[in-house]
Amino acid sequence: MKYKLGFKIWLLIVILALSLISIFITPNFLQEGVLIVSVDSNSTAFDQGLRQGQIITAIDGQEIKTLEDFTNTLQGKYGFNESVKTTINTKDAEIILFSKQAPEITVSEVPKTNIKLGLDLAGGSRALIKAEDKKLNSKEINDLVDITRNRLNEFGLTDLKVSPVSDLEGNHFMLIEIAGATPSELEDSISKQGKFEAKIANKTVFVGGEKDIASVCRNDATCAGIENPQQAQDGSYYSNFRFTIYLSETAAERHAEITDKLEINSTPQGNYLSERLDLYVDDNLVSSLQIGEGLKGIVTTQISISGSGSGATQDEAIDNAQKEMHKLQTILITGSLPYKLEIVKLDTISPVLGKEFIKSILIAGVAALLVVVIIIFIRYKTFKSSLALLFTSISEIIIILGIASFIEWNLDLPSIAGILATIGTGIDQQIIILDESKQKTSLSLKQKLKRAFSIILGAYFTAVVALIPLLWAGAGLLKGFAITTIIGITAGVLITRPAFTEMIKKIGD
Known about the structure:
Layout: H1 7-24, E1 34-39, H2 44-47, E2 55-59, E3 62-63, H3 67-74, E4 84-90, E5 94-99, E6 105-109, E7 116-117, H4 119-122, E8 124-131, H5 138-154, E9 161-166, E10 172-179, H6 185-191, E11 196-200, E12 203-207, E13 213-216, E14 224-226, E15 230-231, E16 237-247, H7 249-259, E17 264-267, E18 270-273, E19 277-281, E20 284-289, E21 302-311, H8 314-334, E22 341-349, H9 351-380, H10 383-406, E23 410-411, H11 413-438, H12 445-467, H13 479-508
Parallel strand pairs: 7-23
Antiparallel strand pairs: 1-2, 1-6, 2-3, 2-4, 4-5, 8-10, 8-22, 9-10, 11-12, 11-19, 13-16, 14-16, 15-16, 16-21, 17-18, 19-20
Helix pairs in contact: 1-10, 1-13, 5-8, 9-10, 9-11, 10-11, 10-13, 11-12, 11-13, 12-13
């Protein structure tokens, strides 16, 4: 006897097809190479045009298909304290680098699907942060998120997510996630307020941020640079840096007003004003600059900032000088954070652990489904019902992943737990449908299935009401569980459960 597929089964098939398209139809599905996840913005690689999102296909003529190819090609190429030419072919361009070290980039395999993995699975850093000794409202936390995102972007940390979250008590937090990398700058850049002040005779001349700073020279060698390292008396090395900033008119007038009252001192090195320009970051003196006599009482918008970095070797001194200059430039551009921050929770997760977890979950999930199918077959002694249950459960997983891909939701550990919970709930409800269909009563099969579905609807609304508070519980860290579970059980009630009911009805007929 041939079965004619009903509307509910066709709806499930169409939704499944759309979900598979959402998951797998990606521009890079057949692309080989490695994907650039992040690029140090203060590096030769960045200056020459390497950017996050590009795909490296070859290095020095060697084809790059995997991460292993990438590592093997660069291995042994550097470390001889001399510049080396490296030709990098991306999907759209050829980039030539001359450097003493490997390109300062983080790479990963090219994703073959649109499924985005969260921090717990892809690896990276996550920090949950609150203002120290202050309870922020929603507007204040949103302002803090905007400023912090700008600062981290200026630091070159582009592969990140900064978002406001709250808990059930109404406390507001900021959540920072950097998936696919573990940048050392994260903790330092968010645990300090970054308050910059320039003072003359203990009077503030200008502060960091748009109010006083019109622009900061960064990548122009004519107004920013690092000097060759010098050796100190203790055998270590230091390297000075200098860059130009441009003040607003108000800050320039303030500078003129303060310097006009200073005296001029003569020294063997030249004539300078009697007070220095002292630079403070978080109330700590980081540099003290002499002021030339030509700036006395003059409204100037151009100021030269200098400092230094030190290290055990010349290369280390230059590297530290670059980092210090970049940090100071960033603080001058973005200004200070509006509040002192406290890190409530800081996690660092290896991507290796994420891969192992995914592998374990897949094995456990497949094994669990097979065991359930076997038990159903033993219990009801019907092969078709067992296959229908298996098909429906797999369909729910595909639909959840399809919707997650479509809305670009990052699947983290709580999200995976939500998928597992959905599978368990779905199997329970399908067993209810099977049990009701096998009950020997005077009711027709259609009436039995209708009664089973009324039970399922009651359970659905109860579950949704129970899950809603989890969107805010744990300062939003359990949101993934709530989102995927709600998506799963909603898809179950609207799509898979009706389709399964129709399958059982046709099998019963």
